[in-house]
Amino acid sequence: VTFEPRAVRPGDWRFDIGAVRGSAGSVSLLFQALLLPLARAGGESRLTLIGGTHVPWSPPVHYLTEVFLPALAAAGLRASVELRRWGWYPAGGGEIGALIEPVPALHGFRAEGPEPGGRVRGLSAVSRLPRTIAERQKKGAEERLAADGLAADIAVEEDRTALGPGTLMFLAIRGRAGFSALGRRGLPAERVGAAAAADLVAWWRTGAAVDEHLADQILPFLALASTPSAYTCPTVSSHLATVAWVVGRFVPAHVELTPGPPARVAVTPAGG
């Protein structure tokens, strides 16, 4: 494999994942791939990304706005995402807009324990389906959280913009952790809500500062920071180990992974 980087050009960009072949490919994953180079491109960029906004095996757009970007904002990155149209599998067709500001240098991120007074917020949403489904998802989540002494402020939203039907249960502690479950035919709405809540409870019990997915998603950014970072997560996942390995091949930063529970990630920039 030969890699020959050239200058990254900031500007206005539009990418439609399903333009050539109909697809509900994740706009969240595409955004995460574009964010780091464009943040260092020396000028402001505006993106329009079309595809799946809430699809399996990828972070929903609400994870970007409530968890991923707030965590990076704590390290000095400036970007925002706007959900313009929901896009579910298999229809896709969702759309987000993003603004990425140039950042000359990031600084370290430190989070080695639970967020003091961390508040659980949530969203139970449906597209082109009865509102009662969203209300039942909310109830299922609240009951599962209450069983472990937790509570959440959960909003209910009905959407009519999507090309097809879908449901989402999303729970988060801002800038630290997020958990979601998608509805599907034959799965009771209460179980959708309870599934997202069960994942949050499992993370909460570890005492980790961030969730398993945020741990690997922010690592490439922190490897380019000017000061050290340290944070805890539930475990050293295969994704985290892989990202640490790849970062080591491109950036002269030292990444140390200490098994837990909770696991600890320490990032020391070159010369730090």
Describe the structure in your own words.
With 272 residues, the chain is α/β, with parallel strands linked by helices. It is 31% helix and 27% strand. It contains seven helices and twelve strands. The chain has helices at 27-39, 61-73, 131-146, 189-206, 212-217, 219-223, 238-250; strands spanning 12-16, 45-51, 79-85, 94-100, 110-111, 120-127, 153-159, 166-173, 177-182, 229-233, 254-258, 263-268. The protein has a four-stranded mixed β-sheet with strand order 1-2-4-3, covered by helices on one side. A four-stranded mixed β-sheet has the order 5-10-12-11. α3 (131-146) runs parallel beside α4. The longest helix is centred in the C-terminal third of the chain and has 18 residues, at 189-206. It is globular. The model has no long low-confidence stretch (mean pLDDT 95).
What is the arithmetic mean of pLDDT? 95
Number of DSSP strands?
A: 12
* Low-confidence segments: none
The neighbouring-strand order within the major sheet is 1-2-4-3
Contiguous helical run count: 7
CA gyration radius, whole angstroms = 19 Å
What does the main sheet amount to? 4 strands, mixed
Q: Which secondary-structure class do the elements indicate? A: alpha/beta
Strand content: 25-35%
